[in-house]
Fold these 3 entries.
Entry 1:
Amino acid sequence: MSDIKRVVLAYSGGLDTSVILKWLKETYACEVVTFTADLGQGEELEPARRKAELMGVKPEHIFVDDLREEFVRDYVMPMMRANALYEGLYLLGTSIARPLIAKRQIEIARQVGADAVSHGATGKGNDQVRFELGYYALAPDIKVIAPWREWDLTSRTRLIEYAEQHQIPVPKDKRGENPFSTDANLLHTSSEGKVLEDPWEEVPDYVFSRTDNPETAPNTPEVITVDFERGDAVAVNGEALSPAALLTKLNELGKLHGIGRLDLVENRFVGMKSRGMYETPGGTIYHLAHRGIEQITLDRGAAHLKDELAPRYAELIYNGFWFSPEREMLQAAIDHSQEKVSGTVRLKLYKGSVSVIGRRSPNSLYSEKVVTFEDDQGAYDQRDAAGFIKLNALRLRLLGRRDR
């Protein structure tokens, strides 16, 4: 690693990555290029640019990219087509952002002729795996620097001391121990650590930032519609919206009604269990709306196969294998299943809950004529069921005679 001349750092402008920026220069005597991604985290990103300039990064080597539309269109929506939930609950808000950040870092590294890339993920978490699997998939020979696995700055106190020694500005609110850490993007906000580490203790109210308290949410339900075309949401309440604008609108609706809170103890890829609070207001509405339109447009065999594939697909994303051939194979099958998944879903939002209350589609497989309890005028011959049942019962009857 001694021959590194230039490195692209995933840079937020916060204390950790600012210390990393200086540490990289000192440790590797290299030039640092910063990359800050706007994924809809709701923060002003120009301060990150100014801070990078203050720390000596050349203006042409500071990248602040608005990736919101690409994030939702090319990552969130394909994942939503799969109905992916990790361990049956988690909508993968952090996981799905990492491959896009990794991809853009590698693109910048090629553009500026960098030898290496670097990230601020710790050696205990999943993100180090997600970033680095992405890097190596896209640039097999790239060098990766993970400072948290190398340096001796093992506490917040040491980070602040290092920052002060090297004239790195430390905001007043960063001098004390944070009560918890957060990660945010357009799909979700995750919070973990410190006050959340005891899984028996209820999450304090001050942790929540993306959702209003369901208990104090409006007392009147709100009914909305979501339109789908080929498995992707394209409009809310009849208004056509871009992918990022659509998720933003659903986030606003979900926040108002306290939708999308999840208290989860999950199994990290690195082996340990961790407890986190996830807020995914728009994504929760989107997920249930997509399931609603699939109910009338997917054949039973296709729907059940998708449900079998979804946990595997979710695990691949959670573990960082977005760029793997198996994820791409699954995506091809899932996308094929969505060709007729078009129509409108009506949902009721009320005090933390989302209910599908209506669905319609020009491609619907639902037939009132067949399913009716009234006279179906020959659409279904009930006498056929006798042979159907007997054939399915044959092996059970043979087992019963043998074992009786």
Entry 2:
Amino acid sequence: MVAALVLSPRVRADLPFVLAPMAGITNVAFRRLCREAGPAGLYISEMITSRALVERNDKTLRLIRFGADEKPRSIQLYGVDPVVVSAAVRMIVEEDLADHVDLNFGCPVPKVTRKGGGAALPWRIDLFADIVESAVRAAGGAIPVTVKMRIGLDDEHVTYREAALRAQDAGVAYVALHGRTAAQFYGGTADWEPIAELAALLDIPVLGNGDIWEADDALRMMATTGCAGVVVGRGCLGRPWLFADLSAAFTGSSTRRMPGLRAVAAIMRRHAELLAQWLTDEPHGLADFRKHVAWYLKGFSVGSELRSSLASVSSLAELDRLLARLELDQPFPEAVLGQPRGRTSGQRPVALPDGWLRDRGSRIVPLDAELAHSGG
């Protein structure tokens, strides 16, 4: 039996697994499916930009809605300006918008890093520290603040040790480390050794992230690195039941869910319906659902024409008709276990603001660094 992940008296995960924030994925509907499978974990919203929150952008205000039974409520916040980040955290506290804030320093997407945000920020170590300190100060002990980061920009610009120590000094509740650099994007194999190093170095919990495809991967990561818990991202795409497997693994059970296509089709239908309810519009809900189709059907025998039709579905009635055409008695395709899901693109140069690498100590916020829109 593993130890609970306790961030504050109000915020705890009875089992130490966390749903990673994923843009365009970890909305109310998907979080609900995952929580129902493994209610003992921590489930974080997709990325919310501090500027969009403070300016009360309509899309952002929709993204920070939580289910009535969703506790604790966790928001991932992105920001590059300490003043704006502080204002966003203060707003979250004063308006009781969430119980926990996770700061994004791990996103490798060019539109984020070229503005100095996400995985680019820890290179400017003093600016990074200013942001973390301002967030913790604004939280005022009312809610815990955590940090998610990568190893560094690339093999020549490694930042995780110093950034983690500065985050600990600022008062964060945990540090989560993805075992890749920004330049690696989502390719290759995650390096878990830096996770082990941080687990030994820090006095606060360190969570590991990267290549948790199955529940047994989580057990292996914790055993080999000594980390206090795991953050699961792409491994649960099209498989919200992975959190049931994690719950079983962390409580000593060897039981693993491997639903056949009939059960998967039922989950797909419910996911689409939850998205339609969340977006209060069936066509928009089904449009959002389409990206999940290939993940759900990975490894199953489904004709190309039917796959294509499912990936362009526009109504629940149409989805019902198409799901009925599947050969529903197929067992779960065990051959796909342990295989990567979602983005797998690899090594690429990191897009950075002009002159970003020249002065690690600069506290200058890049022009127009704060993104005006949240999510994917």
Entry 3:
Amino acid sequence: MYKRFKVKIKPTQEQVDLIEKTFGCTRFIWNQMLNERQTVYESLGNNRESLYAHKYLTEKDYKQQYLFLSEISSYALQSTRKDLQEAYKKAFDRLKKGKKTGFPKFKSKKGKQAFRMPNVHNEIRFLDNTTLKLPKLKGVRLTYLPKNFKGEIQSVTVKKEHGKYYVSILCKIDDAEVKKERSGDGITGVDFGLKNFITTSTGDVIYGLKNVLYDVDKRIVKMNRALSRKKKGSKRREKCRRKLSSLYEYKTNRLSHFQWHLANHLCNENQVVVIEDLNVRGMQKLRSLSRFVSTQVWSTFVNKLENKSVEYDTDVYKIDRFYPSSKMCSKCGAIKEDLSLSDRQYECECGASLDRDINAAINIRNYYLVNDKKSEDHIDYRRGEEVRPRELSFDNFQGIFCEALNPALAG
């Protein structure tokens, strides 16, 4: 099992200069190797034998041509070459399957700033509780060390986000040490909504951060307008840019904190979490819904839910995308074709009257019980005949630490 820890670092000025130089060198190597591959393909594309037999230059060859590449860690250059090869491999795999794909592109200074270094011969290790030794950088000070940090370090990624520096540490942990004991063994259906972030079949209603993010977006729009009026190269423009960057950082951290806590709650309380397989891209094409769908950010929450489910050994089950969970009555199974988005209360001819989102969540749960063979092994004693809505809050924002858990992280 692999677990990733993201921690803020406090590098010295010398370390900052070397980190920035490493960003530039890895970006330079990526662009040079990508340009070489494009040039070779244009000249040898019609001759497949010569194309497959061609040997591309490695980072060692480029270090002989450009001596400044020797000033940074060779592990960062090797990882850049492997990342480019993996990007091409994934692009061709999607192309073979007949899917739309995009090939690697040239990197810019304004894009993502990061480089990765694998842990070879234990060169990456902790000197003390708050000092991490990295190749070329020596001892880098961390703001803190997470209490649940454990495992063997596999690689470290150094990132720059909103003018601050972070390290993302990938660790390998024994499965027995990762697993946590759940407090409940129920089966819950989760309905994603526009009014509320999610509604569960047990009656839990989580409103989400729609209002909070809306206020932050208004401040971001106002700050962008102020930035456009500042003279380029002036101190006031740089000051305004930093304020705008801090707003984007606050928005990202606030949303990530909320989603991690909600995912932890669902996986801790349930043995099976049944969710919808939504076509988010299709919903964003509708002018009336695009803004609301983009602010809910369901896709990132689903990723966090799947990662956290590994920790609690919880099953995340996705139902059929075209299943009419909202239009179907959860008691008699009748489908109400004329149901509109404005109808917030589901009224059926059989006498059922309940909240629209709770009705959909119950149908999502029932879909799993009917269609999945594993459902015979799960028994949920919590839900009765009637479900009363209960609002939950996950808005105690203090987080500066992000974690991810996924067996595929090592890839």
